[in-house]
């Protein structure tokens, strides 16, 4: 019986992330790989319709804030887990993006005992695909 040889974790990657999408740029000896992961997270679920609901059943028609928050947290955790799976073959990570998602991803990596792979966390505004690749290349340059 032959034993499968694991792929060595030697590549570096950068991930630009917000609550809507993550763009992963992996640097390899042959160049770079780019992968986009979209989330299905609805940040602020709201009531449907044009006018506020009225009547004795309004409380039953609108989910409680804590229930909405639990649903949002669950959706975000599933999104971050998908990103973490996509990052599994990279040894060192640069995480950057405009909002809270970068810190939340780092927290999720730490929860799964992978936080030591993070080399840096940086704030960055919205960027084009080329700007994201250039930033990752410059960081790991």
Molecular structure report:
Helix 2 (65-86) crosses helix 3 (101-111). It is built from four helices and five strands. Strand 4 (90-97), helix 3 and strand 5 (118-123) form a beta-alpha-beta unit. The protein is globular, with a radius of gyration of 19 Å. With 141 residues, the chain is an alpha/beta fold. It has a single domain (11-41, 62-140), classed as eRF1 domain 2 (Nucleotidyltransferase, domain 5), CATH 3.30.420. A five-stranded mixed sheet has the order 3-2-1-4-5, sandwiched between helices. Helices cover 35% and strands 26% of the residues. It has helices at residues 58-61, 65-86, 101-111, 129-140; strands at residues 11-17, 21-28, 31-38, 90-97, 118-123.
Characterize this entry briefly.
This protein has helices at residues 58-61, 65-86, 101-111, 129-140; strands at 11-17, 21-28, 31-38, 90-97, 118-123.
Helical segment count: 4
Helix amount: 25-40%
Biggest β-sheet: strands ordered side by side in the sheet? 3-2-1-4-5
Mind describing the biggest β-sheet?
5 strands, mixed
Question: Kindly, what is the distance between the CA atoms of the first and last residues, rounded to a whole number of angstroms?
Answer: 41 Å
Low-confidence stretches: 1-9, 47-51
Strand content: 25-35%
Please give the CATH class.
Answer: Alpha Beta
For this structure, the CATH topology is Nucleotidyltransferase, domain 5
CATH architecture, please? 2-Layer Sandwich
